[in-house]
Structures are given as structure tokens and as C-alpha cells.
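Re: the 205-residue chain
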Amino acid sequence: MNLRIEKALAFLFLLLVLVLTWYLFLIDDLVTDSEARITGVFASLALGFGIFQFWIQELNDEKRKRYDMQFEAYKDLVLQIERISESLHIELIGDEIGSIHNLLSRLINHLNRINATITISSDSLFPGLHVAPETKSMLNIVGDIMTKTNQFRLQIEKANRQGKEMARDFLQSQDRMRWHNEIGELLKELHTSKHAFLRVLKDHM
């Protein structure tokens, strides 16, 4: 049940206790003796406030637990997106490409972690997160990064099959510069899209 609805029900319960106490002990003359009436009023209010306080405490504990889970999911999503950017930045600023297969493997692992967290969180922690336009935009950009990098991997493998000399020349070729430029632009888009995506998460917290 929605937390706001449960809190509203708790306050309605308290209001009902007050109304019933007022009616039974002050209007209906359920108890005629003054001392017994006062005792009944205090006992009824004490019981009602006790239940109300326990109810609110349980709701607050549930809210804190939910926030903690949301915060952990939020941190993990931020971390995975940042790792995608860092992995690519390392390749972009280097004079030579390292293992393109290792790079792709890291990117795939980060993307799988992002997709898993979004899927798990969309039911209760961040309702509707998987269908939010900001989520789709961010995932599309990461998908484009994966596609461009995989195409670059295929080009490197083709160059390697043609011999080491050809491979070295290829790494300095226009193909590598094109990959650099395309990934650089996609990283700028990812940076912008990331902030819009994170705002959606914060709106739920």
C-alpha cells in the first residue's frame, strides 16, 4: 500500500479514537460516575495514541528501509555509468588502444549491471523507471557506444589479420580518429543524459 495512504489511515484511526472517546464517555453517558468517566477517557486515549504511535513508527521504519535500498541502487547506477565513461576516457587519451576485447567486456559488464538494477528497481523502488524517457535515452546512448566500439573491434581484427605492420598503420588511421570522435560525442551526450536520468531517480527518493 502507498505510504501516504497508510499515514492517512493512521491519522483517521486516531481521529476515530478521539470521536468515539468523546461520544462514549462524554455524550452517551456510558459511564455515569465522574471518576470512572475520567479513567475511561484517559485509558481510551492512551490505548488509541499507543496504537497510533506504533503504527507511525512502523511506517517510518519502512520508509527508512526503502530509502536505504533506493540510495544503494542509485549509487550503483551512478558507479556503473561513471565506469563506462572512465573506461572509454582511458582509451581516448592514450596513444595506443589497449585490448579492445577487454574494453568491450568491461562495457558489457557495466551495461548488464545497469539493466539488472533498473529491472529490479522498477517494481518497487523506482516505479516505472524502465519505461521513463530519460532511462531509454541513457540506455540508447550506451547502446550506441557499444555498437561503435564493437565496429571498431571488427576493424582492428581485420587489420590484425593483414599483418602487424598494417595493424600499426591502422591504429593511426582515419578509422581510429573517427571512432575517437564518435565516442567523444557520445560521451558528451551520455553526460547530459545521465543527469536527466538521475533526476528521475531522485524524484522517487
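The chain has a mean pLDDT of 84.
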